[in-house]
Amino acid sequence: MQAEGPMPFSRFMERCLYAPGLGYYSAGPTKFGAAGDFITASELGCLFAQTIADALIPCLRQLGPESDLVELGGGSGAFAEGAMRAFSEAESLPRRYRILEPSADLRERQRERLRDAFPEALFSRFEWLDRPPEDSWRGVLFANEVIDALPTTRFCIRDGKVFEEHVVVDENGEFKLQDRPADSLTSTAVRHVERDLGHPFADGYRSEILPQLPYWMQAVLGSLDAGLVAFVDYGYPRKYFYHPERDEGSLVCHYRHRAHANALILPGLQDITAFVDFTAVAEAGNHAGFALAGYASQAQFLIASGLANRFERASAEADEVGCYRLAQEVKRLTLPGEMGEKFNIMLLARNLPDAALPPGMADIDQGFRL
Fold this sequence. Notes:
Helices cover 35% and strands 24% of the residues. The chain is α/β, with parallel strands linked by helices. The chain has 2 domains: 7-17 and 152-209, no CATH class; 24-149 and 214-241 and 275-369, Rossmann fold (3-Layer(aba) Sandwich), CATH 3.40.50. Strands 2, 3, 4, 5, 10, 14, 15 and 16 form an 8-stranded mixed sheet that branches. β11 and β12 (258-260) form a beta hairpin. α2 packs across α3, α2 packs across α11 and α11 (307-316) packs antiparallel against α12.
């Protein structure tokens, strides 16, 4: 910044999270679980991954033995472990379970965990990627809490004009925020949202937007010739995301299980995220050639996909303490005050018959809210 001037917030967030050796997801300390900064659904136990896997099995079976599964950002490897056990149990293994993981540190943790969890015949199906698949493929792409971690642009409206939030260094060497006129890409994206909402943003309104989302989606999904895409994240349909009263946006940082909104402190040591505009995700998916196949809360989707059956089967093999933990896991996954309504799942499909979609999706689909 001292050499080149103000840095767009999106660039600042990207460096804080992903700078090699220094960024939050590139450095060594534990990120997930009780010893980290936050807990994802996969870290609560086995039920989330196994229930999601059960919902994806019809697609894998429909596409045949050459189908692959690609997971974006594998975290600790907990989801991959639980999902692979469910696939193996159902005799519906993907040809390859590919994890696109940019962090070398997390990649090694995933590799170690999965090598310890599975015999060589199963472990050999895992493959790690540095970038999205370039050759055409068929199967499922799954991403849990990935879009919220994409470097987001922060914008505000001043005198009816679009400004973009930048980070500068003051005379004391401290990071400060500064609004500067937005470039054409950001301005166009904001004006598109205003047209879709049917009204302009009020003066002083501040929020997040991902003008690069259509390009990211094309890069990630472009080579998927036939299959299903499942995004799980916290967020809202557009009209709720950009509610007039949500005039400071949705940016949130996590450090040692505490949430706050100051992204300028602890660079590289804290997580920085923003809630997801799921309408924008559907638009970007359509732009990449995918149709919306379903949208529902996490609670609705897990219940429709057989969470109760998974709970009963796991409880039958557990002692009293284990049953209590499983019950607590179900509560965290489904209660409105926990993850149940805060998190949503969006399905996108290409060249896939309805029979390959998760059972019961049509009964719970809330796509009309987008």
